[in-house]
Amino acid sequence: MADFFGWADLRSPKTALLCEGGGQLGIYGVGALQCFHDNGVTFPYYIGVSAAAANLASHLAGHRDRTVRFYADYALRPAYMGWRCWRKTGSFIDLGYIYDVITNHEDPLDYDTLCAVADEIRIVVTNARTGRAEYFGNSAFAGRECKALMASSALPVYCKPVEIAGELYFDGGVADSLPVERALEEGCARVVAILNRPPGFRKTPEKGRRLYPLALRQYPEIAKALALRHENYMRSLRRLEQLEAEGRAVLIRPAAALPMHTFTRRPAALLRQVCRMGYDDARRALFCAAAL
């Protein structure tokens, strides 16, 4: 077996694959996952946030190219997201359309393969009542549904919260955008992280934070969590960079800011280009260290 990332074994010590969310920016991570698929690279522990959690689910279900269609093709549909969607459903992004109509019918997820995965899976969500992160595991898919993925992608203000077992949840990135501490707490000694931002990136306070208490008056703890999101993000990023300096982490991230934003849908060629960037960066991370 190749010494991926310069490590002879990804299972001893236990290595996590951490995937950052970010809406359409997540197509960069799709490219990295395609590279892992093509080279047979697997991990004992996977943790994903928001769109990246959906990327991981599709990857672990054995689909190589399925997720690209969501970013570059399905996202163009008025029923997927946009102001027309807002007027019809009350949400800018129709998570029911994405995770039921498409995922369960039009372009079905292979639940049989996904549910048979023996490695640990974690999906990060934020409890709407407490504003704290929670983590769903492999059993989230046992009912052949994607409620946990819907919850992890439910951006406050842009989406309504998703109910699971009597609790309401929002996007996992609200409380834990880069869940490195969770991975370490669950026994991972090393981390491979797929990030969407370049080296030197510094997250700033949310632009609309002054309006959040009003817009999210039903969910005051979510408004508070959003106000602190940049601080928590930077704390986790510094932790990842510290682990990288110690030789315990590999960060796969673009060399410069991606030429797109959270809701970019056109042109599709740009999205596919960013996907290829993720593939190439992951390939360099896989084999360059081993060649030294």
General description of the model:
The structure is a single chain. This protein is of the alpha/beta class. The chain has twelve helices and eight strands. It has helices at 27-38, 51-60, 66-72, 83-89, 95-106, 111-115, 147-152, 180-185, 212-215, 220-227, 229-245, 268-291, and strands spanning 15-19, 45-49, 120-127, 133-136, 162-164, 167-171, 190-194, 249-252. A hairpin with a 2-residue loop joins strand 5 and strand 6 (167-171). The two termini are 16 Å apart.
Overall SS class: alpha/beta
Radius of gyration: 18 Å
Give the N-to-C terminal Cα separation.
16 Å
What is the tally of helical segments?
12
Could you estimate the helical fraction of the residues in percent? 40-55%
Please state the average pLDDT score.
95
| Residue windows where pLDDT falls under 50 for at least 5 positions | none
Fraction in beta strands:
5-15%
The oligomeric state is: single chain
Biggest sheet layout: 8 strands, mixed
Q: In total, how many beta strands?
A: 8
> How do the SSEs run, as a string of H and E?
EHEHHHHHEEHEEHEHHHEH
**Outline:** globular
Describe the secondary structure blueprint for this structure:
Layout: E1 15-19, H1 27-38, E2 45-49, H2 51-60, H3 66-72, H4 83-89, H5 95-106, H6 111-115, E3 120-127, E4 133-136, H7 147-152, E5 162-164, E6 167-171, H8 180-185, E7 190-194, H9 212-215, H10 220-227, H11 229-245, E8 249-252, H12 268-291
Parallel strand pairs: 1-2, 1-7, 2-3, 7-8
Antiparallel strand pairs: 3-4, 3-6, 5-6
Helix pairs in contact: 1-2, 1-12
